[in-house]
Amino acid sequence: xxxxxxxxxxxxxxxxxxxxxxxxxPLVETPLQSAAPTxxxxxxxxxYLHRGGITLTxxxxxxxxxxxxxxxxxxxxxxxxxxxPLDDRRWADVVACxxxxxxxxxxxxxxxxxxxxxxxxxxxxGTGAELGYASDRRGAAPMDTAGCQTVPRAVVLVFSGQLGSxxxxxxxxxAQEIAHTFSVDHxxxxxxxxxxxxxxxxxIFQDIDAPCGEESERACHCGRRSQxxxxxxxxxxxxxxxxxxxxxxxxxAAETRRGPRDGLAISVHxxxxxxxxxxxxxxxxxxAVFSSTCGDGLADCTRDGSTATFLVPGxxxxxxxxxxxxxxxxxxxxxxxxxxxxxxxxxDPTPIALGVATRGSxxxxxxxxxxxxxAGEIVGATLYWTDLRGVTLxxxxxxxxxxxxxxxxxxxxxxxxxxxxxxxxxSSGHLAVSPLQTFxxxx
Length: 443
Fold this sequence. Notes:
Elements: H1 2-12, E1 27-28, E2 45-50, E3 54-58, E4 67-68, H2 69-73, E5 78-81, H3 88-101, E6 107-110, E7 120-124, E8 139-140, E9 155-158, H4 167-180, E10 212-213, E11 217-218, H5 229-237, E12 251-259, E13 263-271, E14 276-284, E15 289-293, E16 300-304, E17 307-312, E18 318-327, E19 332-334, E20 338-341, E21 352-361, E22 364-373, E23 378-386, E24 392-396, E25 398-401, E26 404-410, E27 416-426, E28 431-433, E29 437-441
Parallel strand pairs: 1-26, 2-6, 2-7, 3-4, 7-9
Antiparallel strand pairs: 3-5, 8-9, 10-11, 12-13, 13-17, 14-15, 14-18, 16-17, 18-19, 18-20, 21-22, 22-26, 23-24, 23-27, 25-26, 27-28, 27-29
């Protein structure tokens, strides 16, 4: 079991170097209340999806007139992209998928060019070579990385020649590039289309605070401490005006059975009329802890329709876990905490001493840990914080001084119980996991 816990801990949340202190920003909880309760005063944003081949002129973005800053940025006067190699059936799947990605926002997605008015255009076709991009480029979009303003009348590119014939990669690439024009940065959350991290499943914009970056954490654009792609898109686009929009969360439950290698198999079952996008398991026992969305590779998981089965090898002692499901329109549901005794054997002793304390008030809580080891040095410590929705956020702790590590959390305004776990790893491959910490937050 140490393999899962330790690899996830060290690979994604190692020790924070002194020059990275600027990245040790507070984790931000997502409030329970609606992100955008009232419809905006401006007209709905029109997203036009174009697949028929096009010649674009270089200049400031002007989708209705086929002018693209991307063409100008490559030092070209014109660029011609061939039509996307997608038949009518595949194209209908792409359009429906993009509509689903933006269904909760005040957006109208069309594949016939609007005769008048402003709109954003996503061009599907080509390989990127037409503009001199590298052969591994899947798409491109203009983005204001200095001021993080929306790029009006933007033209984004989806290089269909790099994406095969399946609708999903076209859809997720389009979602990422379109979101860039509203200043959505890349983030380190595999299940979100704004992420480059591999994901074996259906990506959808996640209503979760996440660090920015491509393969490792970096500072977000425009001084943002972190990013929640859903809240940012609500801010720029507003909520859907559809009177029948889906506000019903999925149902979710879990069950356990013995698994291979003296392990535990945990099956998460979720159901939703509009379809379930992701299922996540947060697990802790005597020797390990992880939080994994099925498909992100952080835990061994297979999905069959509405069931995701997580395998926990070497499960040991008293275990606690919670399952979370997100539907295709972003509604979230979570189970209560499940508790079980896997076995009553004492775990092997660890040379790591891990003490945990909670401090703070007035919307800011700090999780502190004193961590030492007699076998090498501490190489990483991770906070697993569960908010009121049941969503678990995973962040590295930052070394404050000596053996002191900490991470601040900006707590949402709602009162209620908060839970967290801290795990630490040393250079000799040992792992220590704190007991589940629970406290009642009162703003």
